[in-house]
Write a sequence for this structure.
């Protein structure tokens, strides 16, 4: 079964939880006991409609405040696909949650309140989708029932949003506009009869139609070695397998490869998934590879195809999203985790801050606060093997870890 | 009772080329492998690589049996490089215990068992009494003591985000403090595939490799892999009684029953298997794995709808997690 992970972004009260609740309801994914709980609570609160947001707002604090404050994952499936929705909050302080949710998503839904149109928050939501290079973005114009299902309102918002699109640096992104009413169910799962002027697909129809090529960029294969498998049993006395996940492209038996950082040459002998051998390891599969030569390979090394080398260097410049209340400053040291590799990294220079609403950059920055996005140059104590984020979503990204408390304090996209 | 006996080592989903060694290798690529399986194997390998003393928490339920299968696949042809640990409430279904012992023996795994009864005897926890008495909550103390005893730094568990709304926010690597507690407001963000397993002394990490699986995904996987599971998951005749709209086993003394609660015989199966005292049965005719998969697909009741421990209050799960519950 194909799995599609979708990030959602909307401002407070744009009706994001209601939209998700509606999808669950119309795809019959809400079970009787959940539905009963929603009916009961809606009644207690004196609502005259079902409050679907109760299906997704998980934590007690959220139910009390009525807002979503962390990334929640919601699951549903159709006969065609399994869906995971990362429900990420749209409140201004929570850029980090949006970046987090979007980092593992292949598609994204941006919500706009039809009565409010494109607001500052929308710029931020779109900026993050752009920064993370989400390939398929659906701009969902919600609450159409409250603007009399007006085509003019829809067209105005579409035009305003298109202006934003001209500012983005990732032009391959596919953007689709859909007018919906999450509360009433128009164009969410079923097409609306209230908007005969809209000829496009419903939101779910659009998602159902997304193909692998619509959501993944093709890159070069990278195989970071996660774990060395040495059974040392009688049957597998000399077995030396390299376990890991294949990113970006595929690797096949017989491929000429290099092991980084030593650049030792070898050939792929066998590809295992459990006890079966395969000719080709497809992207994102967790396989075990054996090599023709008996060479020394350990965790953190990377197997790449000969002639397809990443950059090998002890420094890079990256756009980072800072996620911690303690500021990042020039000279600070962090543990930098790049895939399965960890190095000690020093901040050489904060080049500039990037306003996440397309309003430009700020130079002469002293430190970065939580939710700041900036271009930063790092130096490390040993070389990393990396690609630019725009060419390789996995091998072009990293996280920063505080060396004192071990928290994940930042995420980076290599330039 | 219908006992489904299948060898634990048997595999299914063989392609037609399986007996033809040359064809098999020439034709196949790994693109058909379930992406959830790839993800879980990646996570389990990260645990083995990043931690010094990991353990797999094994309850005998379908989710932890699935985890064992994934761990076996992750390290083949080497053995699983960490032990299994069962926190035994003493109120487990006998079928589960019998199954557990056979599984570890067949797969050659190491099993550690720690008993809630010992925590009760030591006066660390107090047995609940009354109609809804359960040892489910008491497990937490025994678990935390065992983590301390063995100095485990990572505990792999079979919790899934779709089970319950507080679990929907759980991380894959979820850091617990010295007291084993979960601070839901101070969770580490998890980006891309990168799992940050750095911890301070005294902390440990709960790891959930099947976070992104749904109940249906687990059942489909059990069917696909032909994994043996305890017989109580399949429809069988059982003496039961009704309370609060749920079906309780009347065959086991640990389930409290009032004298006026009438015992009837029904065809039932268990959809989730926890402690006997907090696990209700569902009416079912599903006697094979494929019928169970069909039943789950068409079901309109959520899995934990049959868990009385979640019904105590709307925030029941969240509160237990903060206290260190699994």
């Amino acid at each position: 079964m194909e799995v599609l992970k979708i990030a959602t972004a909307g401002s407070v009260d744009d009706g994001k939880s209601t939209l998700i609740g509606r999808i669950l309801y119309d795809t019959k994914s809400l079970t009787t006991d959940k539905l009963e709980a929603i009916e009961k609570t809606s009644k207690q609160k004196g609502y005259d409609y079902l409050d679907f947001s109760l299906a997704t707002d998980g934590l007690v604090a959220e139910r009390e405040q009525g807002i979503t404050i962390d990334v929640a994952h919601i699951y549903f499936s159709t006969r065609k696909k399994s869906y995971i929705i990362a429900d990420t909050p749209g409140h201004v302080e929570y850029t980090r949650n949006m970046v987090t949710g979007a980092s593992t998503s292949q598609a994204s839904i941006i919500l706009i309140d039809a009565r409010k149109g494109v607001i500052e928050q929308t710029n931020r939501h779109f900026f993050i989708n752009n920064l993370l290079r989400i390939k398929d973005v659906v701009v969902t114009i919600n609450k159409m029932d409250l603007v009399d299902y007006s085509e003019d309102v829809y067209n105005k918002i579409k035009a305003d949003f298109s202006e934003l699109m001209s500012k983005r640096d990732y032009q391959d992104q596919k953007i689709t506009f859909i007018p919906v009413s999450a509360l009433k169910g128009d164009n969410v799962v079923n097409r609306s009869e209230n908007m005969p002027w809209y000829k496009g697909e419903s939101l779910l129809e659009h998602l159902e139609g997304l193909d692998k090529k619509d959501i993944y960029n093709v890159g070069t294969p990278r195989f970071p070695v996660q774990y060395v498998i040495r059974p040392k049993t009688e049957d597998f006395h000399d077995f030396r397998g390299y376990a890991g996940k294949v990113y970006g492209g595929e690797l096949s038996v017989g491929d000429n490869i290099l092991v980084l950082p030593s650049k030792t040459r070898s050939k792929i002998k066998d590809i295992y998934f459990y006890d079966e051998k395969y000719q080709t390891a497809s992207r994102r599969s967790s396989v075990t590879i054996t090599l023709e030569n008996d060479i020394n390979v350990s965790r953190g090394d990377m197997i790449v195809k000969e002639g397809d080398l990443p950059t090998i260097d002890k420094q890079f410049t990256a756009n980072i999203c800072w996620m911690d209340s303690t500021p990042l400053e020039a000279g600070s040291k962090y543990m930098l985790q790049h895939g399965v590799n960890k190095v000690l990294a020093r901040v050489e220079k904060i080049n500039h801050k990037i306003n996440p609403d397309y309003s430009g950059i700020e130079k002469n920055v002293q430190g970065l606060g939580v939710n700041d996005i900036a271009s930063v140059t790092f130096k490390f104590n040993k070389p990393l093997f990396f690609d630019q984020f725009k060419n390789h979503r996995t091998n072009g990204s990293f996280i920063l870890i505080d060396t004192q408390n071990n928290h994940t304090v930042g995420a980076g996209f290599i330039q | 009772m219908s006992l489904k006996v299948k060898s634990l080592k048997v595999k299914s989903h063989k392609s037609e080329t399986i007996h033809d060694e040359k064809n098999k290798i020439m034709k196949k690529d790994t693109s058909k492998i379930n992406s959830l399986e790839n993800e879980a194997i990646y996570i389990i390998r990260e645990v083995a690589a990043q931690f010094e003393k990991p353990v797999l928490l094994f309850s005998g339920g379908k989710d932890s049996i699935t985890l064992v299968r994934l761990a076996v696949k992750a390290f083949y042809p080497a053995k699983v490089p960490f032990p299994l640990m069962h926190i035994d409430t003493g109120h487990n279904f006998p079928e589960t215990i019998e199954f557990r012992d056979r599984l570890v023996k067949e797969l050659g795994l190491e099993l550690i068992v720690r008993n809630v009864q010992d925590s009760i005897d030591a006066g660390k926890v107090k047995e609940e009494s009354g109609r809804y008495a359960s040892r489910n909550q008491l497990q937490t103390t025994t678990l935390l003591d065992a983590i301390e005893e063995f100095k485990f730094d990572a505990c792999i568990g079979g919790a899934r985000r779709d089970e319950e709304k507080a679990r929907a926010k759980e991380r894959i690597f979820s850091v617990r403090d010295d007291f084993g507690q979960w601070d839901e407001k101070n969770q580490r963000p998890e980006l891309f595939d990168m799992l940050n397993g750095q911890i301070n002394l005294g902390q440990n990490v709960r790891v959930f490799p099947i976070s992104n699986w749904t109940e249906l995904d687990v059942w489909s996987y059990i069917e696909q892999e032909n994994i043996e599971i305890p017989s109580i998951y399949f429809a069988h005749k059982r003496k039961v009684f009704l309370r609060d709209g749920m079906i309780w086993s009347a065959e086991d003394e640990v389930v409290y029953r009032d004298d006026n609660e009438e015992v009837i015989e029904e065809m039932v199966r268990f959809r989730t298997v926890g402690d006997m005292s907090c696990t209700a049965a569902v009416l079912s005719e599903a006697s094979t794995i494929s019928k169970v998969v069909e039943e789950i697909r068409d079901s309109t009741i959520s899995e934990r709808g049959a868990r009385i421990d979640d019904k105590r209050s709307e925030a029941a799960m969240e509160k237990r997690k903060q206290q260190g519950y699994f």
Q: What stands out?
A: Chain A has eight helices and 25 strands. The longest strand of chain A covers residues 341-354. The two ends of chain A are 34 Å apart (CA to CA).
